[in-house]
Amino acid sequence: MVFFLLTAALAAPGLSHPSASKSGPARSAYAVELLPHQVWPALEGQTEGLVVEAKAHEWGSPVHWGRGPDRPNYCAYRYTTGPATSPFAVYFESSDPTVGYNHIANWSGGGGVYDAAMLCSKTGQTYGLSRPVHVVQLQVNSGDGIAENRLHFVATEAKVLDGTRAVPLDPGKALIEMRKRFDRGLAKRDGEIAGRVDAGRALALRSGEDFRQSQATEQASEPTVQVLPSWDPATQQLRATFIWSHIATVHASTTEMVAVNCPPGAPCVPPRPMTTDYFWSYGAEVAATFTVDAKGRVFDAEWHEVRGVGLSAE
Question: Is residue 204 a contact partner of residue 211, using CB atoms and an 8 Å limit?
């Protein structure tokens, strides 16, 4: 089956359906603009940052290094540090093969050879890790660090910093408060969001139904909230970017008999039906970045305007 997406802007009067393209499904533009993609800086032998469990939380779904929601079927921390880095897939030195996920024996890396596994709040007690989110100080590969553009490293020592005099905030509670502020901001923008979605939906339905007189159907979808939280050791601030998006599609299809051109005298395959699927995407997105100090006080919020996606775009 062939998939098409219509990504043109809202049509001018008299234009019932834009022409199709092969650009693929619509994606959040804010995710591309605001979230780093596979950006891993070099880490020194000792690093300070945030460990976050890769799962859906009360405050949203953290993103992975490819910008999508990070919700694997296993329990593991990711690590972020600084203002604009992708999450690292961090391993912790562990001699017990029954503890953690994906235990690796004799892993040869910087600083030595390790037995290591991915840990989370259920398995990280040896390192004092007992919550889904912690501000931490980690020793990287026995103090040797790693070069840039490396997804993995082994934490050979760990120290929890949140809840101390230096970093008294609870990062999990701070992220929940950020999410509440984000939701209140969304509520204030409900009218603008609904206008974008409704206009795009009407155009998508009209385009799908008009296209070769095919019957169009709507594809069910739910809004998503993606979050990239990180601790910046230089400023001693917790920063989180929230992206709300609702991207839906209208589907129509055509079926044609396709014949194969055969050389003279050669056996030939009879004509066969081929179905082509067309998708008209529409929706809206909005984003905001919140910054919290080491005491958990939200002192900065940067909002990005409501934008249309696909046929809802201006």
Answer: no
- Identify whether residues 274 and 304 lie together within a single domain: yes
Please state the length of the chain.
314
Q: Residue 133 is part of which domain span?
A: 36-161
In this prediction, residue 207 has a pLDDT band, given cuts at 50, 70 and 90, of confident
Overall domain count for the chain: 2
CA distances from 290 to 34, 47, 159, 213, 227 (A): 13, 23, 25, 48, 11
Residue pointed to by tokens 């055509």 = 254
Residue 105, pLDDT above cutoff 70: yes
**Residue 166 placed within a domain:** no
Q: Are residues 188 and 303 in the same domain?
A: yes
Is the Cβ–Cβ distance between 169 and 295 less than 8 Å? Answer: yes
Q: Are residues 187 and 233 in the same domain?
A: yes
Same domain, 246 and 268: yes
| 180 and 279 within one domain | yes
pLDDT in tens, 236-270: 999 999 999 998 888 777 777 777 777 777 778 77
State whether 134 and 154 are in the same domain. yes
By CB atoms closer than 10 A (0-12, 13-18, 19+), residue 279 is buried
Average pLDDT of 141-146? 94
Q: Do 138 and 180 belong together in one domain?
A: no
